[in-house]
Amino acid sequence: MSERAIDAVLSSLGPLTPVAGESVSWRLEDRMAHYGVPGVSIAVIDQGAIAWSIGRGHLDAARSWQVDADTVFQAASMSKPVAALAMLREVEAGVFDLDAPINDYLSSWQVPENELTRRAPVTLRRILSHTAGLTVWGFGGYAEGEPLPTLPQVLSGLPPANSPPVFVDVLPGTIERYSGGGTTIAQLALQEHHDRPYADILAERILGPLAMHDSTFAQPLPAAFASRAARGHHWGGATVAGRWHTYPEQAAAGLWTTSGDYARFLVGLQAAYLGRAGSLITRETCGQLATIPPGGRSFGLGPKIIGHGRARRFQHGGSNAGYICGSNAFLDGSRGVVVLTNSDSGAGLAEEIILAVARVYQWPDYARAPRVRRRLSADEAARYAGRYAMAAGSPYPMLEIRADGGELIYQLGTMAPRPVYAETATRFFSPESLYDTEFSLDGRGTATAIGVLDGDRVILSGTRME
Q1: Cα separation of 185 and 166, whole Å?
Q2: DSSP one-letter code for 72
Q3: pLDDT at 11
């Protein structure tokens, strides 16, 4: 079955949002070339076990080494659910209380107190669910040879840290706002309690017990792993200077892993949720992990919790300099997938692979229904084209819409450009995205503002610049 299933997945990639009346199917290598992704690693979970894991393509754009199942990639923000599991093991051991002020566990640095934190404390539960009101979405890492900051320097935004300080500017417990800064606070608490390197703690508490022998949180990457590590690539194909960045923010972005190893983590998470013997945390604790707390929208304690009924699943993606990845695992323990790529332009490819896996393995309620495309004239398209300044808190300061005749091309930050099609005068979609775009129009039908939608929920917004 595996060989047939592998071939079926690799030969049946298609649009993330299909267009009504169009039927297309691509092979993996063609889509890798389309997106400019040198290498990819894929693992599939079926019937509660890892069905297969493979690598395709090359470690670098020079095409000197082949990616295989043992190639390690940066897991980027997919590090966070692994880090969360470690913290929940400590909660069960009585080291941390999910609802106590996190400052109770910190000595070398403290969350700055203000009127907001006096009204509602920053707690571990809120940190893990991104509801703590903390700043700093993510981290850029450090190029080879650059000095590395300590965690207190990172959290204070002090040199040589290249990220701003972490503090509370929204009342904790009231909204969900993604914060790698918060995850880094949890890392500091764990390190200070054990007075040991973070990578050693995670190896002992998570990676070893789950047989993730090809994974490490060590930063910089040890030589034993570096020889089989995929090099990172920027959009356009240039290799990341020094091959990859180093992330002292290990809990937020520092895991190096294979797709097979990360699938072992997901199987372990599924086992805990189902209360199977030998799991790293109890069923009760994993039930809390899979519960979206007050103020939240999609995150449990670590991973996103999305879907309904039998389609309910753990989900998380990641984006480091030169790497994009994605994962899904059904809460019922049946199925899942991990995709790792070594390119900033890997987001569309990763989602296309996940969708192909969903089709071949008959995932419930995953594929999107075809959408009807409304054709635009060149004059109509020009009404939407322009540069949009994104609202404060967005990881991308600018979104650009370009018109080419009646076609519109959408580019958000450093993400790869993609076509965007009109469904109505205000609602647009892209065959290369799971997110919709909605425009606000003035009385002449010219766009004045833009929103990026996850379903009907606005996740990013911007105002058109003159």
Answers
A1: 9
A2: B
A3: 97
All CATH 2.40.128.50 domain ranges of the chain, comma separated, are 378-464
Q: Which phi and psi (to 5°) does residue 369 adopt?
A: -70, 150
pLDDT less than 50: residues of the chain: none
Which CATH architecture does the domain made up of 73-360 adopt?
3-Layer(aba) Sandwich (3.40)
Angle at CA of residue 210, ends 209 and 211, nearest 5°: 95
CA–CA gap between residue 435 and residue 347 (Å, rounded): 12
In this prediction, residue 289 carries a pLDDT of 98
Condensed to tens digits (0 to 9), the pLDDT of residues 363-402 reads: 998 888 899 999 999 999 999 999 999 987 677 889 999 9
Given CA atoms 437, 442, 444, 447 in this order, what sign does their dihedral have? Answer: negative
Q: For residues 417 and 2, give the distance between their C-alpha atoms in angstroms, rounded to a whole number.
A: 34
Start-to-end CA span in the chain (Å): 57
Q: What's the CA gap between 339 and 351, in Å, rounded?
A: 8
Q: What is the pLDDT of residues 87-119, one digit of tens each?
A: 999 999 999 999 999 999 999 999 999 999 999
427 beta partners = 438
Q: What angle do CA 384, 386, 391 make, to 5 degrees?
A: 100
Q: Has domain 378-464 been given CATH number 2.60.120.260?
A: no
